[in-house]
Amino acid sequence: MGREISAPSLFQLGYYWEAKIFLTSVKLDLYTPMGSGPKTAAEIASAVGADPENLERLLDSLVAIGLIHREGIRYANTPVVAEFLVKTSPFYMGELMLLQDEEWEAWGKLEEVVRTGKPPVKGNIFMNRPEVGEKILRVLDRMAKRVAPSLAERIDLSGYKTFLDVGGGAGTFSMAFCKRYPHLQGTLFDLPETLATTQKNIDKEKMTGRIRLVGGNFNLDELPGTFDVVFLSDILHYQTSEENAALFRKLSRAANPGGLIIVKDMFLNEDASNPGWNAIFSIHMMVYSEKGRCFSGSEIRGWLEKAGFHWVTEMERNTVLTAIK
User: Fold this and answer.
1) 105 inside domain
2) Which residue range is the domain that position 220 belongs to?
3) Which residue out of 183, 237, 284, 310 is catalytically annotated?
4) What is the CATH number of the domain that holds 212?
């Protein structure tokens, strides 16, 4: 079931107010000064270069939203904000919020896209704006560091020797699996312009001898050999059904008999009456990419089985599937 809707909530849904207040607060970097403890509006204004009176009104609106607390004349971060929006935090996600602020105009074209069925852009952010794509990779790397080690624990790769990460980006999952299984030899395949960022991360983690980097386009180029494990993370929602079906056929050719495929993405619920939050993310892909959308787990299962993978298992609801070649 979706959220319960009332007359007041209808009006709230129609306002952009909270979203713009939040995104502006990230752009002003209001949360970092409070990272060292509660601050007054004047102290925060001095730290970020803002008008104290207007900033106090903005801070009070953030209190009303629930992002921060007010203690007398001082303001303090909530735990979630402290973890994700203070620049000194290892899990800082502010760049992703800033990208959402840049999407303001793209979302303004939603009606046009729905009426015409024509995409508002060509390609996607990684192709069109590599400098922004690099920022996104950094954020995705931090996000993945929270989940990659636990995924590597839950999926047993002790019986496999070689690992291919297709479109592996920053290399976070490759490194997590290779750290968990010291005998595993990794290969990461992604666009050459992405691999510069990947190489920095692998060098930093001293994993150069464990993970080979190969440049190429997984839709156009053949994959570099055959492997015991093939891993695919957050690729499908950038592509069409036809492209994904063809990609799974290619991944099947790259998997050894008895090999394992791991598919991580954002799946729609199987129950069409309750598609889940990923249905909203699918709209984001509609306004910010040429052909992106979310798919249901059953659609992905169908591509896997037609490509020669079987024993499909949902490891994590609407997020991770595994199958055997």
Assistant:
1) no
2) 123-324
3) 237
4) 3.40.50.150
Phi-psi region of 36 (alpha: psi -120 to 50; beta: other; left: phi over 0): alpha
Query: Could you tell me the strand order of the sheet in which 68-71 lies?
Result: 39-40, 74-77, 68-71
Q: If you search the block for the tokens 């009070």, which residue do you land on? A: 60
**77-129 pLDDT per residue, tens:** 999 999 999 999 988 988 888 877 777 878 888 899 999 998 877 766 666 66
pLDDT of res. 183: 95
Dig out the tokens for 268 from the structure: 């729609």
* Other CB atoms within 10 A of residue 176 CB: 20
The mean pLDDT of 55-63, rounded to a whole number, is 97
Q: Active-site residue 237, yes or no?
A: yes
CA atoms within 13 Å, Cβ hemisphere of 323: 23
State whether 145 and 215 are in the same domain. yes
What's the Cα-to-Cα distance from 64 to each of 57, 97, 176, rounded to whole Å? 11, 20, 39
Question: Is the same domain home to 178 and 310?
Answer: yes
Q: What is the mean pLDDT of residues 21-32?
A: 95
CATH code, domain with 40: 1.10.10.10
What's the confidence (pLDDT) of residue 1?
54
- The verdict on residue 115 lying in a domain is no
In a domain, 239, yes or no: yes
Q: Is residue 300 in some structural domain?
A: yes
80, 83, 87, 93 alpha-carbon torsion, rounded to 10°: -70
Q: Is 2 left (phi over 0), alpha (psi -120 to 50) or beta?
A: beta
Task: Give the side-chain half-sphere CA count within 13 A for 256.
Answer: 13
Q: Tally the domains of the chain.
A: 2
Q: Which residues does 250 contact at the CB level (< 8 Å), separation at least 6?
A: 218, 222, 223
Q: Are 232 and 133 members of one domain? A: yes
